[in-house]
Amino acid sequence: MVPYEAAEARFTPLYADNPNSPQISVLWGNPQTGPSAALFRFPLNYGGRFHSHSAAYHLSLMEETMKHWDEGQLEADVPIQTAGAYWYQPGGQLHSDNCLSEFCVAFVVFDGAIDSAYAD
Q1: What is the pLDDT of residues 55-84, one digit of tens each?
Q2: What are the extents of the domains in the chain?
Q3: Which InterPro entries does the record cross-reference, listed alphabetically (predicted)?
Q4: DSSP 8-class letter at 79
Q5: How far, in Å, CA of 44 to CA of 51, rounded?
């Protein structure tokens, strides 16, 4: 068991060249090379840009409120997700997210290395 305490999690920027990117606290694995589990902390209004990841992931929202939608959907049409929400995102599928609170914390398990490819 790994207890979660937001104040004790050591978060670092997911992308070192973008300090406004989500922050990550790795729980196991190596997100640069293979499967991993991590806590993600998203800033307010982060998201809105369609992107995909090579690997699939499972996300469980732990704190606050977010929206998540796939290509072909509009953010305005999808429900607000609250703590306890879960979604599965297949690898290679365009999607977007938005944190609607000051910050959002999620537990995320990636099936492979974490990467992002943005839509044109």
Answers
A1: 999 999 999 999 999 999 999 999 999 999
A2: 24-112
A3: RmlC-like_jellyroll, RmlC_Cupin_sf
A4: P
A5: 18
